[in-house]
Amino acid sequence: MTGRRKYDDGCAVAHGLDLLGERWALLIVRELLLGPKRFTDLRAGLPGASADMLTQRLRELSESGIVERRKLPPPAASWVYELTGWGAELEPLILELGRWSSRSPALRTDAPIGPDSLVLSLKTLFDARAARGFHASIALHLGEHRFRVRIADGHLEAVRGECDRPDATLDTDPGTLAAALWDGQEHAFDDPDGVVSRFLTLFPLPEPAGITRESPAPRPGGAAG
Is the sign of the CA dihedral 92, 94, 99, 100 positive or negative? Predict the structure, then answer.
């Protein structure tokens, strides 16, 4: 990490920013939380990051012990990036950051969202109380991306991969699903047993934070304005 700006502060929070505070670093971690990815897959998930920038950040995260690179066994035999055990411990932090920022009044729920980001939003906003008594295995197909979602005993598990014998299959795209979840837009999903309808109620957005802004101090000799 030679040449990078550092805080040179003994505080662990400052050191955490040394490790993850550079642009795109935390979003790379986000993209790897659900499993390993090839470089091309990371670029697809982070279209605003150039190839050079992505390469640099991956090198820095590898030097920090957060990310590692390995070769998949045949027949794939391709190189992938994945989180180390220590890097995977960032998941609660990222989910909590998402939960906190979802209360921002400026959050745009109509903005584009990637498949991994959407699945992590499900983990972030999952309402365990609303899911009480609901047990389901759902195959979530977001374009070419496949995820399996299981809900049982008030817990949600969501990982990348195919789902064997699902109770329901939700075949859509991230934008359509996000609109159904959070923008109140109704869509005719295939749902003969009502599993998808119940599923869609389990991820409410929290109330926006009550942000108060102080009025400017009066100017000397007159009213503020």
Answer: positive
Backbone angles phi, psi at 38, to 5 degrees: -75, 165
Q: What is the tens place of the pLDDT at every residue in 18-69?
A: 999 999 999 999 999 999 999 999 999 999 999 999 999 999 999 999 999 9
Residue closest to 181 by CA, chosen among 111, 104, 122, 123: 122
Radius of gyration of the chain (CA): 21
Residue 138: in which H helix or E strand, if any? strand 136-142
pTM here is: 0.85
Q: How do residues 98-149 score in pLDDT, each as one tens digit?
A: 999 999 988 887 788 999 999 999 999 999 999 999 999 999 999 999 999 9
Length, in residues, of the chain: 225
* For helices 91-101 and 25-32, angle between their N-to-C axes, nearest 10 degrees: 110
What domains lie within the chain, and their CATH numbers?
Answer: 12-89 (1.10.10.10), 95-199 (3.30.1050.10)
